Every structure is written in C-alpha cells, then in structure tokens.
Amino acid sequence: MSAAYRLKRLFNVSGKCFDVAVDHGFFNEHRFLDGIEDLGGAVESLVAAAPDAIQLTVGQAELLQRIPGRHKPALVLRTDVANCYGVSLPRTLFSRLIGDPVEQALRLDAACVVVNLLLLPGQPELHAQCIENICRLKPACERFGMPLMIEPLVMQANEKGGGYMVDGDLHKIVALVRQARELGADLIKADPCDDATQYHEVVRAAGCPVLVRGGGKAAEREIFARTVELMKQGAQGIVYGRNVIQHPKPAAITRAFMAIVHDGASVERATEIVNKV
What we know:
Helix 7 runs parallel beside helix 8 (200-206). The protein is built from twelve helices and ten strands. It has helices at residues 3-10, 39-49, 62-65, 101-107, 124-144, 158-161, 170-182, 200-206, 220-232, 242-245, 250-263, 267-276, and strands at 17-21, 53-56, 74-78, 80-82, 95-97, 112-119, 148-154, 187-190, 210-213, 237-240. The mean pLDDT is 93. Helix content is 42%, strand content 17%. The protein has an eight-stranded parallel beta barrel, surrounded by eight helices. The protein has a two-stranded antiparallel ribbon with strand order 4-5.
C-alpha cells in the first residue's frame, strides 16, 4: 500500500486535517494529564465532535479503535517517548522508539505514525537520538506504506519556558523543518512562529503538508486568531492538544477548529460555534 492511500484517511475532502493530540500521558508529567484524567471519556467526546484524526499511544489506541462504525477519526500513533518536558531536566535525557513501531501501527490500523525531532538548548545528544529514531523508522514506513509525520520542536530552555514551550524563532523553525523533510517526512507537525504572517516560509521549507502544533495553552480568541492566520499562510491543518482537552467545552471547540480548518471560518464564527453549545 502506498503511503498516499493512508494519507487520504487523514485529510478531509477539503485537503485539510485537524488532528487532536491526546498522547500526553506518554511523557510522565502529571500536569500533562489535565483534561484527560479519564482518557476514555475524553476520546468518546472527541469522536462525537468528529475531528479528522486523534493522536494516541500504543497502550491507549484501543480507546479509539474499539469504537464501532466506519466514520470515526483516523488514528495517528505516537511512536516515541521522551523525558525532556519537565521544568528541570533529568540527569540523563532520552528519546526512545517503541518496539516494532510500524508493525504495531499496522496492527492498530493507524493511518500515520508520528515521531519527534527535538531541539533543546545545549542538548545535542538528544537531537542525535531523535535523528537515529527517524533513520530507523523511515525504512519500515517505506516498506509498509505507512506515512511518517515528523514533529520538529524548537524548544525554549526548560528553566526559562517551564518545559515544552515553543521557541518561536522563525529561522530555527525553518531549519529544523527542512531537516525533518530531508530525513524523509511525508508530513510535518511544526511549531508556530512568533509572527504568524511569516509562516509561509515554514510551509515552503517543508515541501510537504504542514500541520501546525498548538504549543502551550492560549486564550480562546488568541488561538482562534492564530489558527485563522496560519491557515491563510498555507498550513494544511493543525495538531492541537491542550487547547482542546483543557478547554471547558472540548467537543465544541473541536467543532470550531474544524470550521476554521475546513471552511475558512472567521474568529467570530468560531466563537459563535463554541458559545452555541
């Protein structure tokens, strides 16, 4: 099977994709569990809101895949686990692939696998581990026709940004996105840059579909405005997690983001959708 066939399960007839990431429990950070303490309930709520995809781990993918019916969201399977997201870094950093990641993805009927390409200040060894992970994963993806989503993350220093915070520097993001493409990405989940009107440069560097990462939790109107602009700049979708699952109305805001991504809805229209429920 060609990877292009599986990608058609991710991308709506509009040619765009909204993937809701709820794989945060993989990373051993208690604060990441806010909104997904009951992950089964969270997945059921999201399925009812009908995003294009839901991003899960190998141990939790069944929460999506056991739901009957042909029209549920596609599964994006997280294939790597890392320990670099805390406010302070541990003595030894790691980024590790799960065993036989593509075979596990096939057994779980995933439409795509995702892997990190991490860039932390002063941690070149972690970056090297991520490159090794990708180099191991890419040939298996090619062999079995599994799309490879690479997630290049340019992060602030943990003590400065509180861990897992976007740097936002356009030049750093462009360079890392280009590296992800050079390593064989079929699609890229990329950071937003500080000036969203410059995001077309990230899209150009990728040379393949770009889905924008949500980054840290933001105010509702702020994240709507950013998403509208990023889509105008050529992004083919979004991968948001905490801005969905930590919202008071996760299903409603999912529908609002779907309207922005697929229908070009304005900030005002997205706000109406949330408030209507």
